[in-house]
Amino acid sequence: MTGCPFCAAVDWGTSTFRLWIFDADGMVVAERRSADGLQSMGGREGFPGVLESHLAEVSAPDSLPVVICGMAGSRQGWVEARYIDTPAPLDRVIDSAVRVEGVARDVRILPGVAQRDPSHPDVIRGEETQLLGATVAGSRDGLFCMPGTHSKWVRLRAGTIEGFATFMTGELFSLLGRQSILAHAISDMAVNPTDSGFLAAVRAGMARPADIANRIFEIRPAQLLGFAPAGAGAARLSGALIGTELAGAKARFGTLASVDLIASGTLSMLYAQALEATGSAVHLIDADVAVRKGLFAAARRFWDQT
Prior knowledge:
The longest helix has 20 residues. The protein folds into two domains: 131 residues, Nucleotidyltransferase, domain 5; 121 residues, Nucleotidyltransferase, domain 5 (2-Layer Sandwich). It has ten helices and 15 strands. Strand 9 and strand 10 form a beta hairpin. It has a six-stranded mixed β-sheet, sandwiched between helices. With 306 residues, it is of the alpha/beta class. The two termini are 24 Å apart.
């Protein structure tokens, strides 16, 4: 580890674990990543040992405090950090953090956000910290898209989450591409964001979302009948699902004229291309940077005595 540590910060996901050590200026002085997500914990008793093992690997002091977001605060996690309700000022996320009892160091877990609308019940856990980081960087208003296994669309106004919607796009892509009849039409799940078939499928999905079940089935016979190359169905499947997601987000939020896209890696390129192809102006925010900024903002509130 280089530099003087101020705190540790953890994004504890369902299948992944990411830890950063920050100095007093928010610079990362050490980092750990692993597959020690919620699914591998085997119960609440597993969390302290996993955290301490990663902290030991970066020689973190025994007194170093830790702030955590994500699934460690879920009902199946380490300690439940109960949801706060919409409309949810992001400052309230920090104020509602739960302190973990029975451990030597100061460990705090940030809560998620619940939308208790019987017409559109929904929850987020982890994405609120990315949004907090985006507000630190100056993005306090707008429509935010956070793609992933379950994509989140959030309306933010003056730093307050007014409402949101979740789309199971990533999970559907994985299930359909690997476990349905379409697996015979897909030899590689990787998708090129500039693929013409991907972009055409996005536009069709946006324009005709009601046809989704028909259009994804057509991927297989298109290959059987010689209209498309064998095994090249991933781009059309991804495009159809993302395009339908965009149509759903537009129906819910009214317009996609301007979208703040919080994403990293291939997903950031796929969604940026899809949004631009359907007429949206896109402001890209790196998801890794956003979650680090959000966690550090919380840590400053908890432990900065200057």
